Sequence to fold (243 residues):
Amino acid sequence: MNPSTPVDTAHSPAAAQVDAAITGRQSVRAFLPKPVPRELLTHLLEVASRAPSGTNTQPWKVYVLQGASRDALVHKVCSAHDAIRDNPALAAEYQEAYDYYPKQWVSPYIDRRRENGWSLYGLLGIGKGDKDKMHAQHQRNYKFFDAPVGLMVTIDKIMGGGSLVDTGMFLQNLMVAARAHGLDTCPQAAWNHYARIILPHVGAGDNEMLVCGMALGYADPADKVNTFRTPREPVAQFTTWLD
Ligand SMILES: Cc1cc2nc3c(=O)[nH]c(=O)nc-3n(C[C@H](O)[C@H](O)[C@H](O)COP(=O)(O)O)c2cc1C
Fold:
């Protein structure tokens, strides 16, 4: 912070606005076709780039897909996703560059994951046996949930695991800044398996690995999927106070 900037007290209007942008962010899974001006996207990326990174390495790289480039990627990945449904053996051809999720799920994470998944599917009226509906809902990821802007975020493979932490901070900045400007987002690891389609499509170098994708746009307030709210553990559950 600039030393001359006055420090906000906890309940100042500025603090309340920051809190509101953070707590008002949610993963949105239905967007309006309304385009996002390029100047605004540039502004959001500029704000997000104030994220800290180890020794200021700024490892993130962002590909912004709109229009024909977005639609062509959606087509390619939806086709691959459908092909895997028809022939599950094909899944072996689509490996993610890093394990976003654990290879072996244990409690309490598996419990939270299940609660999250079944709550969302419950809201959408998708039952446990509804494989077609599940596939279609999963496929919504590969349409960026109809958002007009799709982002693909990469880092250089040569960087360490810390760069994933740094890039996470960049992504969070981006999502919070978007919220403050009336936009919404959904970070998407669902794309990671399809890196071998995505990276050549966006023109990424062989040295790059896909961190995740992100849908960005104006939320569709009429779609019930956007009423989905996720719980959080209380502070006392994840904090140990040492005096
Ligand atoms: C890196 C990352 C990847 C995610 N990938 C997906 C995804 O592929 N599809 C999806 O619908 N949600 C995805 N999510 C959203 C999470 O499910 C969501 O953040 C979590 O359930 C908490 O809900 P909230 O974002 O509404 O607070 C992802 C979140 C993060 C941080």
Summary: Strands lie at 61-65, 149-156, 184-188, 208-217. The two ends are 28 Å apart (CA to CA).
